[in-house]
Amino acid sequence: MLESYVTYSVLPASDLQRAVEWYRDKLELEPERTTEGGVLYGTGSEAKIYVYETGNAGTAQNTAMCWLTPDIEATMAHLRERGVVFADYDFPGLHTENGIATDDMGRSAWFQDSEGNYLCLTQPA
């Protein structure tokens, strides 16, 4: 049943205005809709991101959301020009080169938003 439904990501922000500015300035996303509690962004087809204000922002140490990209290097270069900083990892099971990890699923790169959420780019294999 759920395999045919559209999903959306929900991301916390400790400072919603700062997050809105970061998503605009770094990721070039404009709010699709503003609600009392947060901001909704469209990201392709029917995918959405809802950013809401809460004191719990930045506490998760896991990937919160990924974008699928056909060309990870080009996407990273564009975001780096806008000030996005990609993480480098070197521990068992995860090693990056120039910010990119490669495994049998594809190639991925991680960065944090202004609120400490871990976001990801993935170029599927």
Automatic annotation (TrEMBL):
Pfam families: Glyoxalase. Residues 5-124 form the VOC domain. It comes from the Bacteria. Keywords: Dioxygenase, Lyase, Oxidoreductase. GO terms for molecular function: dioxygenase activity; lyase activity. InterPro entries: Glyas_Bleomycin-R_OHBP_Dase, Glyas_Fos-R_dOase_dom, VOC_core. This is Catechol 2,3-dioxygenase-like lactoylglutathione lyase family enzyme. It comes from Leifsonia soli. The lineage of its organism: Bacteria, Bacillati, Actinomycetota, Actinomycetes, Micrococcales.
